[in-house]
Structure formats: C-alpha cells, structure tokens
Amino acid sequence: MTDDSPLSIRGCVRTAGTPLALVALVLLAGTVPALAAGQSTPAISIETGSVAAGETMAVPVVLTSAPDGLAGYQLELSVDDPAVARFENASYPDRLGLTTDPVISSDGGTVTLEAADLDGQIEPGASDVPLATVQLTGVAGGETQVTVASSQVDADGGGVVEPATEPTAVAVSPSASTETATAMTDASSSASESTAESAGTANAAGTTADSGDRSTTSANGPLPIALAIAALAAVAALAARTSRQP
C-alpha cells in the first residue's frame, strides 16, 4: 500500500497557500496607506510674532520634514508691506554649507536664501530642519505678512521636494517715542485751540466795549456845540445893545 501522506501534506500546503497570500496582500495594502499617512508633508514654517517699531526680531525658517533628506535649497521670502516691517539680515545654521550670501532688496521687502547640506548631515526622515534665521525690523505700527515667494528644495540623490507654504502675520506696534510724540502733538494742538478761542473771546469783548464808548461820545458830542452857539448869540446880543447906547 502506497503512503500518500506526504503528498497529502504538500497538497494541503498548496491549497492553503493561496488564501494566505491573499491575506498578506490585504494586510500590506492596509499598511502602506497607514505608513504614508504617518509621514507628514514637508512644509516651510516661518515663525514670526510681534515687534515694536524700531526693534528687530529673529525669525526662524524651518523645513518641517525631510523624508528623503536634504541636499540644498533656494528660497525667496517677501514682506507684503515694507513700510510696516522689512528684512535687515539673515544667517545659516552651521551644519549647512554657505553657497551665496543672503541677498536683501533695497527696500527690505525681499530676501533670497541659498544653502546646501555638503556633509550629508540631514538624513532621510529628519524633521524640523532649520534652514535659516532672518532678521525682521519693525518700521511703523501696523500688520503685514511674510510669504515664501519662491522655493526650490532638493532631496538627497537629486529628487525634488515641493514643500507646502503658508503666509504668516507680523504685528508691529508703535514705539514708545512715537506714542510720546503723538501725545505731545495732540496736547499742543489742544492748547493752540484753547488759546485761539480765548483770543477770540477777548477780541469780541473789546469790540463790544469800543462800541459802547463810541455810543457815549456820540450822545455827548452835540452838547458842547450847543453851548458854543448860545455863547456866541449872547455876545452878539450884548454887542448890539452896546451899539444902541448914546
């Protein structure tokens, strides 16, 4: 009698192999999206805040994640309203090699940054990678936004990274000296208005007094003239009487 047990076992394994393979594929298909979801999308973060006019704050520029590492980048940042805030300077972290000096426009409205990871220190999977620090100075009270005008980010091996970008708000408060000057100007204006009102009142009172004096003079003016006429008449009468006497 032939023993078919090994054949039966192999047959069972072959028969069970197909369902197991299907189960493995299903599990793998569910795992890949989960792994992809666990990797955050790279973005460029500009961490701004508030600053007083005439003061300068340091603004970190950060790549939130580098799934494939970082070979280098070129960025241009811009301020929507340079009359409120402007770029003054910028610097790179030590582990990034300098390729060009930061370039700032004449009005301080844009800054161009470019650097490279020459020593391969930023490995795949790195997060919160500092790219640069820019100096932002408040010019006048108000609010403006800093945006990424353009970006080119390369991963290790030459792959292109397209990080998300979002504008960030910068609030500039008036300086203490500006507020003091404004208060002094307002106080000076109020004092000038009060002085003008007082002068107007005094002029009105003087005009009224002058009118009263002129009225009294006009009323009393005819009296001396009548007395003079009466005196002349008396003298004429006396002269006539004297001429009639022998």
TrEMBL record:
GO molecular-function term, one example from the UniProt record: carbohydrate binding
Keyword Transmembrane tagged: yes
Low complexity composition bias: residue spans: 166-210
Signal peptide: none
Location of the region described as Disordered in the Swiss-Prot/TrEMBL record: 151-221
TM stretches of this protein: 221-240
Keyword terms: Membrane, Transmembrane, Transmembrane helix
Protein's recorded name: Cell surface protein
Organism for this UniProt entry: Haloarcula marismortui ATCC 33799
Taxonomic lineage from the root: Archaea, Methanobacteriati, Methanobacteriota, Stenosarchaea group, Halobacteria
